[in-house]
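Structure (tokenized):
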């Protein structure tokens, strides 16, 4: 699974960077997170309960930060096991750029799943991953800085939403089946 996106956050880059490295902020933002403990400056242990389609599991995992470039970004990698549900491993590159009084956060994610999770199919995994990412960023934006108001947005360049058509079509499986569109793969 691969996913890219960006989010405008109504806070200065230094504040966004600090929040991305604050275990308490991250714990509140990660959907289903029961615990997140810092083991060192770059290592954390996490525990989260998730529902992915018909599979409910508690994942225990390790998270590592690397390629630290404060306050511009980092690489985050992790792996977790959900017992009989399977496993997930992957990583993301996170980049921050100032845009006036706001910050543009860009991310590129690559992940693999195995076990029962892999049997669910790519569409369900992709849709769930996008939903979880959206929940994370909604909460993160709420905690760190509100999204720019409509007046601020009209003055700033619009943020391009990558994959919007794909997300829209993925919600309509009847369309994808009928048209066998490569977008819905």
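Design, position by position:
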């Amino acid at each position: 699974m691969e996913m890219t996106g960006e989010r405008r956050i109504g806070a200065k880059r230094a504040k966004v960077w600090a929040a991305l490295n604050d275990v308490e902020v991250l714990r509140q933002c990660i959907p289903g997170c029961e615990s997140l403990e810092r083991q060192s400056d770059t290592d954390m242990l996490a525990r989260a309960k998730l529902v992915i389609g018909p599979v409910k599991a508690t994942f225990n995992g390790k998270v590592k930060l690397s390629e630290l470039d404060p306050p511009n970004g980092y690489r985050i990698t992790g792996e977790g096991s959900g017992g009989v549900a399977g496993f997930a491993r992957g990583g993301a590159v996170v980049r921050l750029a100032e845009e006036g009084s706001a910050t543009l956060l860009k991310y590129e994610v690559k992940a693999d799943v195995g076990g029962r999770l892999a049997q669910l199919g790519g569409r369900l995994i992709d849709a769930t991953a996008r939903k979880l990412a959206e929940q994370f960023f909604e909460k993160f934006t709420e905690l760190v800085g509100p999204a720019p108001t409509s007046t601020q947005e009209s003055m700033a360049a619009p943020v391009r939403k990558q994959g919007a058509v794909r997300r829209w079509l993925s919600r309509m499986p009847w369309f994808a089946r009928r048209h066998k569109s490569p977008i819905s793969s």
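Reviewer-requested clarification: DSSP finds seven helices and seven strands in the chain. Confidence is low (pLDDT under 50) at residues 151-163, 181-185.
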